[in-house]
């Protein structure tokens, strides 16, 4: 169980975020996403332990994504401030708490270490939750040239919502997308959007989390992942 929870950390290092609905123009609220695993066999022993829901809370060009698994023994949050070009990842694993914060050039350096995404804006649309969303095709610059579709809206006001991720060429908030790392493919699709007041405390950093470097986190997580091979 402990190893399973550790591997969940490595696959949620994304959690990363546009066309118009009835409540268009709002800059504060909550988006709930269904999480699926298009490349994972449901008979895989890990399937039942994987997160099935992600919650994104946003306000004033800040947003936080949250996932949990293992009956709450594993939790991870990403807090992104697009104005400050900063993101923090907080990870809680049983009784251990870690946080990594990157800002400015550190964010750019981190992104450059990941496979590049080539983005083709198709001009096609798809309706998700009454939002007519723009379609884009993402091709991953890797050996297999993996490709997948995303759908995004510009009617939720977060400026440069994807600036701290490989999706930085997408100008809007994604309502359907996917991400793959360490052989685990996760697809996110918005199931509910609610425009409501979000307390500023949602974006505060919990002082109880121990600060570690991105390199230290990556090294530990890679070691755990290699134990499954």
Could you explain the architecture of this structure?
The protein is mainly beta and 229 residues long. The protein has a single domain, classed as Clam (outer membrane lipoprotein receptor (LolB), chain A), CATH 2.50.20. It contains three helices and twelve strands; from the N terminus they run αββββββαββββββα. A twelve-stranded mixed beta sheet has the order 7-8-9-10-11-1-2-3-4-5-6-12. It is globular, with a radius of gyration of 17 Å. The protein starts with a helix and ends with a helix. The C terminus is likely disordered.
Helix content: 10-25%
> Structural class given helices, strands, pairing?
mainly beta
Rg from Cα: 17 Å
Q: Span from first to last CA?
A: 16 Å
What spatial form do the alpha-carbon principal axes imply? Answer: globular
Number of strands: 12
Strand order, biggest sheet?
7-8-9-10-11-1-2-3-4-5-6-12
What low-confidence regions span 5 or more consecutive residues with pLDDT below 50?
13-25, 224-229
Q: Look at the structure and give the mean pLDDT.
A: 85
CATH-scheme architecture: Clam
The top-level CATH class is Mainly Beta
Strand content: 35-45%
Question: Could you write a compact summary of the structure shown?
Answer:
This protein has helices at residues 2-11, 105-112, 214-226; strands at residues 28-36, 53-59, 62-69, 74-81, 86-93, 96-103, 117-128, 131-140, 147-153, 173-181, 184-195, 210-211. It is mostly beta strands.
């Amino acid at each position: 169980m402990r190893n399973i929870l550790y591997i969940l950390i490595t696959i949620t290092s994304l959690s990363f975020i546009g066309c118009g609905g009835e409540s268009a123009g709002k800059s504060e609220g909550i988006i709930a996403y269904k999480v699926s695993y298009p490349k994972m066999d449901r008979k895989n022993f890990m399937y039942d332990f994987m997160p099935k829901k992600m919650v994104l809370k946003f306000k004033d060009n800040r947003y936080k994504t949250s996932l949990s698994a293992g009956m709450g023994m594993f939790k991870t949050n990403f807090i992104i401030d697009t104005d400050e070009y900063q993101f923090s990842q907080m990870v809680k694993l049983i009784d251990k708490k870690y946080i990594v914060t990157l800002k400015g050039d550190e964010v750019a350096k981190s992104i450059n270490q990941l496979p590049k995404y080539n983005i083709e804006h198709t001009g096609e649309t798809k309706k998700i939750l009454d939002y007519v969303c723009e379609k884009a095709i993402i091709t991953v610059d890797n050996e297999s040239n993996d490709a997948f579709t995303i759908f995004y809206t510009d009617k939720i006001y977060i400026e440069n919502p994807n600036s701290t991720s490989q999706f930085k060429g997408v100008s809007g908030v994604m309502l359907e997308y996917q991400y793959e790392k360490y052989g685990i493919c996760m697809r996110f699709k918005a199931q509910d959007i609610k425009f409501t007041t979000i307390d500023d405390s949602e974006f505060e950093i919990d002082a109880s989390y121990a600060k570690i470097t991105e390199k230290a986190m990556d090294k530990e997580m890679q070691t755990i992942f290699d134990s499954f091979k």
